[in-house]
Structure formats: structure tokens, C-alpha cells
Amino acid sequence: MALDTDTGIAPYDAPERDLYEIGEMPPLGHVPKQMYAWAIRRERHGEPDKSFEVEVVDTWEIDSNEVLVLVMAAGVNYNGVWAGLGEPISPFDGHGAPYHIAGSDAAGIVWQVGSAVKNWKVGDEVVIHCNQDDGNDEECNGGDPMFSPTQRIWGYETPDGSFSQFTRVQAQQLMPRPKHLTWEESACYTLTLATAYRMLFGHHPHELKPGQNVLVWGASGGLGSYAIQLANTAGANAIGVISDESKRQFVMDQGAKGVINRKDFNCWGQLPKVNTPEYNEWLKEARKFGKAIWDITGKGVNVDMVFEHPGEATFPVSTLVVKKGGMVVICAGTSGFNCTFDVRYMWMHQKRLQGSHFAHLKQAASANRLMIERRLDPCMSDVFPWDEIPSAHMQMLRNEHKPGNMAVLVQSPKPGLRTVEDVIEAGK
Questions:
Q1: What is the 3-state composition of the chain as percent helix, strand, coil, each rounded to the nearest 5?
Q2: Rounded to 5 degrees, what are φ and ψ at 133?
Q3: pLDDT of 365-404, one tens digit each?
Q4: Which top class of enzyme applies to this chain (predicted)?
């Protein structure tokens, strides 16, 4: 089939069929009736190696403001783990579809556009951010779209995520793909990067500023590695926290001012009852941790911000060590959801507790420009083939993955490819 040369993709011949194998390129813009997907069903909820199964499903139909994207590669993040487990909530309780396709990060090619879409065309190479909304309320028009009552996360609160040959998204979710990156590198960063960007720069007046200090939990992970890089772009100082000494050099290589191993301290978990002997022991250890921060920042210099996401295990310490008037900003609870803290330090020192949830388009696009400008590294630690998507999520669930971000291949047949022509040639 001859292609329109205006797409920027060199013409190639491909038959029109109703289903294509993984890695097989359809004619540009041809939408097959069905596709392969890693599907989750309610009755299979459990660990990813049980809850994820490959199925042949109908290809998504799109609405007027939606876009169908051929997925070249996808990112692995905790949304997929939670979707498989059905915790903290089952995605089926939200969208009600018969099956759920996880995946909240992707890089691919615009394959079909709705009738109202003006800014994108078939053949455009894109990355996808995961925030959706209906666009009609006051928060979406002059406020913060993340506060919209219709706000939802694609691939977790919607059934049409990226672990399939085609994914369905709103047109406002698309952003240009950094052409210097491979497909898998392009696919692995948007969720963690945009989340970190909003946490650090999205909560006025506590935007991270030059010369300030930020404590970064999980500094070797996807979120943490971007928090450190973004702090550097702002002229701030990141102090990374790790739990494995083998990750120290990776964190320093991202530009951390210093690194602390939390295994050297014993003040983790829920806060003991205030003013008990157990509390006094906890406080002694927590202050030792605070002194380790001072060894990096200078005596008496507490951090301006704490970049929180473990939750239950670390929250009491976070709220203690942040400075007077500083902010603890949290986006997850990977160690548990029952966060405790000594509220006396909160009100007496006028500290701020701030929840943060992904990012809106302006924030995601600002972060993406830093990647396009090569001011950030995608920190891709590992890439998995299509048939190992459950295995990748099992590694994340068990905290056995390498530092950085993980990606999985979908239509891209092997790592290292950067163009559509590369994909076509590799698939021959």
C-alpha cells in the first residue's frame, strides 16, 4: 500500500488484515478489527504473573477528541502492579469494563485521529502522558485540571492502557517524542518525570528554588532519579536516600549532593505513641538520621522539601526533618497507606503536608521539553520483550528491579530502534 509522503514516514508495503502479530506493521493508518493485549480480568486479580494474560480483543473505537496510537514501547510503573493486584482499589470498580489493559506510559505513532482533533495527524511520533479529564469544568478552564472531578489516570482508571498493540487516548495527552531516544527510552519516563516535576515545582509557594535542599526517598528509582535531575536543573541540592549500598554510585551519578543509606538507622514504620520509651528511642534514631542530613547540608540546615512516596515507613521521619515552614510532598504509599506523624512539630513549626498526583499537560509538557533538549537522561535501566511484561511487573512488586526506569517492547521488535523505518527493516 502506498503511503502519503506528507507523514514523514517513508512508503512501505504491507497487507491489510484484521489482526497483526506483535511487531508486524500494518499499513499506516489501517486499523485492524482486533489486536493483541495483556489483559487483566477481575477474577484473575493477584500478582502480575497470574493476573496478566495475553488476549485477542477488539481494537478501540475512538471519539471525536480521541486518538488511536500504535504502541512501539511502553513503560513499567506501579500502576500496572496495583491494577493486577486490584489494590488499593480494583480498576473495575471505576471503569466497569469487562477487562483492563494496564500501562500508563507509551511511545508510538498516531494511527487514527478523531474528527475534532486539530493538532495531531496520522504518522506523528508521540509520547503519552497519563492524565485525562472531560475538559468542561472550571478547573479545566482556568484552574488546575488535576482538581477536576473528571480527572482520571489512563491505564489505571481507564481500561485502554499501553500494554496492547493500539491504545486509545485523549488528544491532549500527546506530546512530541524526543527523536534522539530509542522507542523504549521514549516510553519509560513520562509518568515518573511529570509526577516528579509537579511535586517539585507545582505547589506554590513551595516550588523548589536555587540553593534549596530536598530530601529524596527512593533516590535510585524512577521517581527519585528524576527528582535529583530536576533539582539540578533548578540549581537546588538533592540528598538521596537508598536502601542498598550498591545503588549509591548510581544516585551520585544523577547529581545528588549526597546519599544516605536508610539501613544505617532504625526509625522506620508507624510512629510509636508520643512520649513513651519507644517514642524516645525512635526520636533518638530519627535525630541521628537528621544529623546525617546535616553532614551533607551543613550543621543545623534542615531540608526545605521532602520528596515522599514510600509513605507509611518513612512519613514520621519526613515530617520531623523538614525545616520550619518547609513542605513534605507525597504522591504514593508504596510501603503502606497508614501514615503517622507527631503533629506538634507540624503546627509549631508551621510545616506543610502536600498531596501530589501526576501532573497536568502544561507541567508534563514542560518536563518533556527538558528531555527533548537533552537536559535530562531517561535513566532506562532495563527493557523487556513483549512476552515478559508480567515478569517486569513482578520485579517491581518485589523491589528486585534495577535502578531507574523499566520499559517493555510492544510493536518495536528489538531494543535500540529509533525510527519507523528501523522497525520495518527489523521486522523483515
A1: 30, 25, 45
A2: -160, 170
A3: 999 999 999 999 999 999 999 999 999 999 999 988 888 8
A4: oxidoreductase
